[in-house]
Amino acid sequence: MFRVPEEVASIARDIKGMKIRGAGKIARAGAEALKIAAQRYEGPTDPERFKGYMEQVARYIVSTRPTAVSLPNAVAFVMKQLREAAGGFRELVDTVVRAADDFIRNSLRAVETIGRIGARMLRSGDTVLTHCHSTAALSILVTAKKTGREIKVYTTETRPKFQGRITYKQLVEAGVEAIQIPDSAVRSIMKRVDKVVVGADTITSDGALINKVGTSQVALAAHEARVRLFVAAETYKFSPASVHGVPVLIEERPPDEVVPAEWLKRNPGVKIRNPAFDVTPPEYIDAIITEVGVIPPKAAAIVLRELFGYSYEAEKLVLVAAEHDEAGVYY
Ligand code: RUB
């Protein structure tokens, strides 16, 4: 029977239950889980058996949340090195540990670089609007402040899980002037906004952005008001599977995130939908700020070819995630 160490199961539960959330953090946690699984492996030390076990762990980790491609990309990064590694059991374990550490280190560095690049695109006096809680978008806003740019930031609440409150808190802690607004105030506030900065869960080869539900409404309001919209996205947020026409699964989360379970009990039969993400078309995006530079959304395919060479590795894993949640909606 397939077993994972409790620490790995706990990471999987935390990703599913959104204790670990945000596409970058999910990806780093996925890499960490693979590392722990390899280090704690107690089965037969035959290299092929170990590789087979790690393939199962990889599928298990990827199945936790379906939309952010950062997770299958992180897992694919580690597994590719394991698949290609020769040598005995110990060497294989070392390969997984090294690959996972490399992914985590590079990922953190990418967030920092995006902060530096993105901060240069803001000016003192700018009013910025952000949605949800994105570590990459925050890196830009906080770096702007650190480099002497006095900005003001509107943060949406981001119903139903209120991740915008985390953004608000972290901005204030960093000394950035922040103002919390309800999601429904976005269009009226947009008149006072100079730039929008949001994060990404997935970017497809045609330059579309999949991010927290509500992002596309923010983009629509920005477009209408001629406000520029920037996406902060590490390159592991780009979907190699989308090159092959594989759709992105939009996660549907439980109804009790929208209304309290108690209320649902008192009002049986109420129908609720809770899509966690939405799709912003490339036409509404001015630039994607990555760790390899600022690109127009239509250059997504080039980034994908340079980085993944149209590999099928991550696609397989994305498909596993997609099969997992039948209730979801495909983009
Ligand atoms: C979080 C979300 C974030 C992206 C990018 O959704 O949509 O904007 O994941 O975040 P959830 P980061 O709370 O459902 O995970 O820049 O931190 O990777």
Notes on the structure:
- By secondary structure, this protein is of the alpha/beta class.
- The protein has 2 domains: 107 residues, translation initiation factor eif-2b, domain 1 (Four Helix Bundle (Hemerythrin (Met), subunit A), Up-down Bundle); 195 residues, Translation initiation factor eif-2b, domain 2 (Rossmann fold, 3-Layer(aba) Sandwich), CATH 3.40.50.
- Helices cover 48% and strands 13% of the residues.
- It has 13 helices and 12 strands.
- The protein has a 7-stranded mixed beta sheet with strand order 3-2-1-4-7-10-11, with helices on both faces. Strands 5-6-9 form a 3-stranded antiparallel beta sheet, covered by helices on one side.
- The structure holds ribulose-1,5-diphosphate (RUB).
- Ribulose-1,5-diphosphate binds next to α2, α6 and β6.
- Compounds present? ribulose-1,5-diphosphate
From the alpha carbons, calculate the radius of gyration and give it in angstroms.
20 Å
- Runs in which pLDDT lies below 50 for 5 or more consecutive residues are 324-328
Give the number of DSSP strands: 12
Main sheet: strands, sense, barrel: 7 strands, mixed
Mean pLDDT: 93
Please, how many helices? 13
CATH-defined architecture of the largest domain? 3-Layer(aba) Sandwich
Distance from N terminus to C terminus (CA atoms, Å) equals: 35 Å
CATH superfamily of the largest domain: Translation initiation factor eif-2b, domain 2
Percent of residues in helices comes to: 40-55%
Globally, the shape reads globular
How many distinct folded domains? 2
Strand content: 5-15%
The CATH first-level class of the largest domain comes to Alpha Beta
Q: Order of helices and strands, N to C?
A: HHHHHEHEHEHEEEHEHEHEEEHHE
The largest beta-sheet arranges its strands as 3-2-1-4-7-10-11
* Global structural class: alpha/beta
Look up the CATH topology of the largest domain.
Rossmann fold
